[in-house]
Amino acid sequence: MGLQTGKTLILALAGGTIFQLLHIPLAWLLGPMTILLVWREVFKKKAEWHRGFRNAGLCVLGYMMGITFNAEVAGQIAVQLPSMAAATLLTVAFGLVAGWVTVKRTGISMASGLLGSIPGGLSQMAVLCDEVEDADMTVVTFMQTIRVMAVVFIVPFLAFHGLSSGGTEAGSAVTAVASAVSSVSWMSSNTLWFVLAVAIMLVLGPKLHLPTPYMLGPMLGAALLSVAGLEAPSLPHWSVLTAQVLVGAHMGVTTSLSSLDNWKKLLPYALFGAIGIVLFSLGTGYLLTLWHPMSLLTAFLGSAPGGMTEMGVTGAALGADLSIIVAYQMFRLLFILFIAPYIVKGLLRLYRGRTDSPVKGF
């Protein structure tokens, strides 16, 4: 590790620590990104980060998501597949419409507007910026961060104060979350199989041209073994935080503020879009309760555009059905990772064909 890379790592860890102390959501992802962005853009200092570190972080995050996909979750997806597809398509369509309105009102590139408005994970959408022409990582990260903050604050508030019956114990959270992810020690015989599956998918992912192969490959390898019945070795908490730092540092080093000259104009549209998609998800959740015998709390947490971790913990604390929540969140994640890039690229080709000119940025 070179001197510049070492300085970058120290800054990234400092940013994560500060955000953690301030209780900011996704502290170890947003903290490193923010402090390195300020270091480069405000203080005009150099920062270096090898792409391999980012890929290693994506691998860990992919494995973490993959072992969540067990036989119970697969069963829920099989039973409720039509409703999952409908809920996901409606939510994504709402996000794309909000993105289109933002593009027309602010002048950002169409690629940035669409990726910034799709209800996917912050890290997933930032990674997709590398694969979609004309997408501006700074704009996408800004819009997705606004959405994440809105989801993190609004969804639990509505769940706890509006949808909870008040008859559950918060202490059940640990047991419920533990039951959602089967895990064993790394000293078990299953470890070799999971390591082998992840290694194989790391090789095959780029060759198969999978979107975000260093995350999606390990996720698929781990998910296949989990569905087959093998108990997955759990990841220590520090490794997940380390992975977020590795990805966050990459985002901070590769993001530029030069394209956010009119952030004041972009902010209200990003904010209204984020709040709108949360409220739209609440409406979608209500429709799901008419389709399947589930509570509005479970349906809302399943369809809300947040991560499995945040929605799972909220659902566990309130006694919601975790298998359904994880199943809906996993389906949306798979849809966004596999299909959303092609939808965005198709829409961009259609848009460029009609305008007969390159998509413009700020």
Record keyword descriptors for this entry.
1% strand, 362 residues, 74% helix, mainly alpha, Na+/H+ antiporter like fold
Tell me the layout of helices and strands.
Elements lengths: L2 H19 L5 H15 L9 H16 L4 H9 L1 H26 L3 H8 L4 H7 L8 H27 L8 H9 L2 E2 L5 H18 L5 H15 L4 E2 L3 H18 L8 H29 L4 H8 L4 H11 L3 H17 L1 H16 L7
Protein name: AbrB family transcriptional regulator
pLDDT averaged over residues: 82
- Secondary structure: helix percent: over 70%
| Approximate strand percentage | under 5%
CATH class: Mainly Alpha
Molecular shape: globular
Largest sheet: 2 strands, parallel
Please write the string of helix (H) and strand (E) elements. HHHHHHHHHEHHEHHHHHH
Number of domains: 1
H/I helix tally: 17
C-alpha Rg, in Å? 20 Å
Distance between the termini: 36 Å
The oligomeric status of these chains comes to single chain
